[in-house]
Hints:
This protein has 2 helices and 5 strands, in the order αββαβββ. A hairpin with a 5-residue loop joins strand 1 (32-35) and strand 2. The relative contact order is 0.24. It is α+β, with helices and mostly antiparallel strands. The radius of gyration is 12 Å and the shape is globular. A 5-stranded antiparallel β-sheet has the order 2-1-3-4-5. It has helices at residues 20-25, 51-59, and strands at 32-35, 41-43, 63-68, 73-76, 81-84. The chain has a domain at 19-84: Herpes Virus-1.
Amino acid sequence: MPCKHIAGIRNVTPSALGCEECLQTGDIWLHLRICRTCGHVGCCDDSPNKHATKHFHLTKHPIIEGYDPPEGWGWCYVDKIMFDLSNRKTPHNGPIPRYY
Length: 100
């Protein structure tokens, strides 16, 4: 079954050069995800704080992109579907700090 939210994917500006919340608290992350509704940059579910998923639960913004490293895929939290974003990757605004 196709994702009902793909049509809502926006070109966004990243909210930070790393996980927005982890940068504020001094925490670490493994990989980054970017919300394709608002541009919030959060850490992945393999990271201690899982800020990208927390952002979804708070906002209900359905689509994230594998942002760093740029992986070329998208994920819909609602429909639980992965899809190709290799031709629509969000560019970085600058160097991303590394913690691994």
